[in-house]
Amino acid sequence: MKMIKFKRNQKSLVFTLVFLLVFSCASFIFAADTGEVHITILGTADVHGHIMNYDYYGVCTYSQGFALVSTMVKEVREENPNTLLIDAGDLIQGTPLTYYYGKMMKPDKDYPMTYIMGIMNYTAGTVGNHEFNYGLDTLQESIFINSPQG
After folding, report:
1. pTM given for the model
2. What residues form the membrane-spanning segments (predicted)?
């Protein structure tokens, strides 16, 4: 019975992502009547819960994390406002923060990684294999949150 519920939710999620992607591109389609439109597509993958570019175990910095990505995305969007930002999954597992939210999260709390995606105005995202590490309930709670965009 649980698998049937997930398949229905999975279909809803896929439909929603496709719908949002198509309609976010609608302004580009109508703009084509007046001339050429340049679109920039940016992608992230395997963020694995890294918000800051700091390794607390190794006490060093590294070149990943939403803090660095956000800076790069802002720069690209300044050059071209027609920029899509897409994530390929493996987002909600990998750091002590994501472990805490994966194991002890309350359903009424915003999940930090998808909340940040809302702040960064991601166009779309998919689930990766690590999104299933904490079970389907945690996956669903982490996806369907109240983002800053509503």
Report:
1. 0.67
2. none
3-state DSSP of 65-99: CHHHHHHHHHHHHHHCCCEEEEECCCCCCCCHHHH
User: What whole-number distance in Å separates Cα of residue 36 and Cα of residue 9?
Assistant: 38
Number of domains observed in the structure of the chain: 1
List the structure tokens of 147.
């983002």
Provide the domain limits for residue 56.
40-143
Is position 66 within any domain?
A: yes
Residue 90 clears pLDDT 60, i.e. is over it: yes
SS3 40: strand
Kindly indicate the confidence band of residue 106, based on its pLDDT and cuts at 50, 70 and 90.
low
